[in-house]
Design brief:
By secondary structure, this protein is of the alpha/beta class. The protein has a single domain, classed as Rossmann fold, CATH 3.40.50. The chain has helices spanning about 15-30, 45-55, 60, 65-85, 100-110, 125-130, 130-140; strands at about 5-10, 35-40, 90-95, 115, 145. Strands 3-2-1-4-5 form a five-stranded parallel beta sheet, sandwiched between helices. Helix 1 (about 15-30) links the parallel strand 1 and strand 2. Helix 5 (about 100-110) packs across helix 7. The termini are far apart. The relative contact order is 0.22. InterPro entries: Rossmann-like_a/b/a_fold (IPR014729), Universal_stress_UspA (IPR006015), UspA (IPR006016).
Amino acid sequence: MAAYQTVVVGTDGSESSYLAVDRAAAVAADSSATLVIACAYQPREDRDLGRVQDELGSDVAYQVVGFNPAEETVRTASERARKAGATNIETVVVDGDPVPTLAKVVHDHKADLLVVGNRGLNTLAGRILGSVPAEAARKSSVDVLIVHTTG
């Protein structure tokens, strides 16, 4: 099997997602692949903040509501990726929900690997309702690496 050419990793600004960025960067570095760091965001409206907090948790929601926080999230992720060895890094900030956004970024960049953290897989809500990593893996048209980032 040939090495990966383009690796997409999603981040929401949480420490868990940054650990997935670190792993994706290492894979990209080993394969001399392009690393595309993606962050989905929701336009900031006060009435939507409660919904986003319910979906993402209050510890993360503030980081991905509105365009500027998402830009900061991918900038931080890019710095981490560079430290982890990735050299060809692109960042993408997209208005939308995480799973459709990741699918679009994978398609648009002709990626052959999607990397996500396992945050949400071990929660009751994640088991009942599905989680971003589980849904991304089910719907992906390319290989998916789910990085063990939480206990």
